[in-house]
Amino acid sequence: MHTRLEPIHIVWLKRDLRLDDHKPISEAISSKKRVLILYVFEDILFKDPHYSNRHFNFIKESIRNINKQLKKYKTTVCITQGDFIKILEAISKNFKIKTIHAHQETGVMVTYKRDLQVGVWCKKNKITFKEYLQQGVFRAMKNRNHWLKKWDELMNQQIEKSSFAASKFIPHKTIESFKFYLGEESLKTETNGVRQIGGSHNAYRYLNSFFNDRYRNYQKHISKPDLSRRSCSRLSPYLAFGNLSMRQLLQKTEYEITKGNKSFALRAFGSRLRWQSHFIQKFEMECSMEFTSINKGYQQLKKTINPSYIKAWESGNTGVPLVDAAMRCLVETGYLNFRMRSLVVSFFTHHLWQPWQACAHFLARQFLDFEPGIHYPQLQMQAGVTGINMLRIYNPVKNGQEHDPKGLFVKKWIPELKVLPETIVHTPWLMTSFEVSLYGYELGKNYPMPIIDLQKSRKHATSTLWPMSKSHAVRKEGKRILAKHTLANRNSLMT
User: Fold this and answer.
1) Which of 99, 254, 382, 409 could tie 404 with a disulfide, CB 3.0–4.6 Å?
2) DSSP readout, 416-471?
3) Is residue 59 part of a domain?
4) For strand 95-103 and strand 128-132, is the pairing parallel, antiparallel, or unpaired?
5) Over 139-198, what HEC string results?
6) Nearest to residue 348, comparing CAs of 377, 314, 397, 302?
7) Are residues 62 and 119 in the same domain?
């Protein structure tokens, strides 16, 4: 005897791991059909070179936080692992799926192709697939003529509210009965202690502490490798994985600005939020950036991979203290401020003369706040292959002396250099024989000598890239990029 299956709506969570300001959830709840909230730990992401356990742990922590909030409604996130479409087919044996609600994901190529496949599967099975805007990123835009206006309109909309009730969800007990349900056991994570913990609860902890106090030194410490860890908002991983929406953060920022006493620092912060969305939109419109230089004129630039250079850079053993300290810090904590991120990429692509593609995946796996739409445009900008940005080759010695003058950051992450005074710590290879004897330090033994000559490598990069920037191919591409991505009212991003 054929049993009629209950019609349901599915909310597919991806990089939007929250319950507040969540259009797919509010729309699903208003459907008058029971709702299943679903997260799939996808095989394609486990295999993808951009992701690592720190990302999956952050996701698990975020889902645990959601489940705490859902407990009062006697439901939970249905947690599965495998191929998304196969999971949908399994659910279809228990329920009649009417609609799948999901945010558009500004992800990498593999997730974009997966979304297209889901759309085809839904059409074939007569299931509605509704995708919603997130972060103010719009698909299929040919230029930026109306982007900022549309972005402002979206950001100024009221925060999305959902009417939660137990009767509106598939109950926890039913979900537990699914053969593919992984349960709470699968959400266990190892305690790290130095990396940020996922979840909206922690997102709001960081948000409140920033606006209550930490913002005060935002501008003063933003470039300092150590002090920035406290004075910057530290909200980037929560935005990247959607524990907090861009609209929530922007409206909170603008509310605090209206109070007056915080306007200078927070206006600068608000400007950076706008620039963040700008770059994500740029990646959306030029997704080939994941693989090749956005400026086709630079695709002729050939660099030879040097595995020993790459290994030294990844492990923080290049012999250049600030670079090595930054890399060791990143690997351990998952965080660097913007200047240090720029510096390590600049060192990799200019001083080590390695292709930016050779560091893209490694850095993505280390950054807890990995966001493809920020990652690739910034990589290419620092590598000097856009044709529209000033060539910037960071001097790691000068940056160390200016932004870590006492060597506190360097000594924290390179304990081999603790014995050295601040006058020497950024250039240990320049020590005299007297200094070597005085501090009991052995050049090249306690800590490696630089694997390259900083001055010669800088000169080589400059002499190669500067003429290329003047070539017809690069300039032609530069004009195309500017026409496609430049905002008519660019100054609006500064407010």
Assistant:
1) 409
2) GGTTS-TTTTT-GGG--HHHHHHHT--BTTTBPPPSS-HHHHHHHHHHHHHHHHTS
3) yes
4) parallel
5) CCCCCCCCHHHHHHHHHCCCCCCCCCCHHHECCHHHHHCCCCCCCHHHHCCCCCCCCCCC
6) 314
7) yes
Single-letter residue type at 354: Q
Residue 186 exposure: Cα atoms within 13 Å on the Cβ side? 16
The CA-based dihedral angle spanning residues 484, 278, 295, 341, taken in that order and rounded to the nearest 10 degrees? 170
Residue with tokens 């020497």: 424
Q: Are residues 259 and 301 in the same domain?
A: no
pLDDT band at 261 (very low <50, low <70, confident <90, very high): low
Per-residue pLDDT of 307-353, as tens digits, reads 999 999 999 999 999 999 999 999 999 999 999 999 999 999 999 99
**Strand, helix or coil for residue 392:** coil
Could you tell me if 127 and 17 lie in one domain? Answer: yes
Residues 6+ apart with CB under 8 A from 398: none
Six-digit token string for 406: 């006492």
Rounded Cα distance between 120 and 123, Å, is 5
Q: Which residues contact 347 (CB under 8 A, 6 or more apart)?
A: 313, 318, 320, 323, 394, 396
Q: How far apart are CA 254 and CA 419, in angstroms?
A: 47
Of the residues 105, 134, 163, the one at which a domain ends: 134
If asked whether residues 126 and 219 sit together in one domain, one would say no
- State the average pLDDT over residues 241-270: 90
- Average pLDDT in the 197-202 region? 98
Residue 357: inside a domain: yes
| pLDDT at position 418 over 50 | yes
Residue 346, C-beta contacts closer than 8 angstroms, at least 6 positions apart: 382, 383, 392, 393, 394
Distance CA 426, CA 407 (A): 7
Q: Which helix (H) or strand (E) element contains residue 54?
A: helix 53-70
Of 318, 271, 182, nearest to 494 (Cα)? 271
Structure tokens at 213: 């106090």
End-to-end CA distance of the chain: 65
Residue 384's pLDDT is 96
- Domain-located, residue 95: yes
Whole-Å CA distances, 193 to 206, 232, 242: 16, 19, 22
Only one residue has tokens 């306007």, namely: 263
Q: Is residue 245 in a domain? A: yes
- Report how many domains make up the chain: 3
* Among 453, 59, 73, residue whose Cα is nearest residue 240: 59
Structure-block tokens of residue 331: 């690997």
Same domain, 92 and 116: yes
Buried residues in 467-484 as b, exposed as e (16+ CB within 10 A): ebbeeeebeebbeebeee
Q: Which strands, in side-by-side order, build the sheet including 34-42?
A: 78-82, 34-42, 6-12, 95-103, 128-132
Mean model confidence pLDDT for the chain: 94
3-state SS class at 401: helix
β pairing state of 95-103 and 6-12: parallel
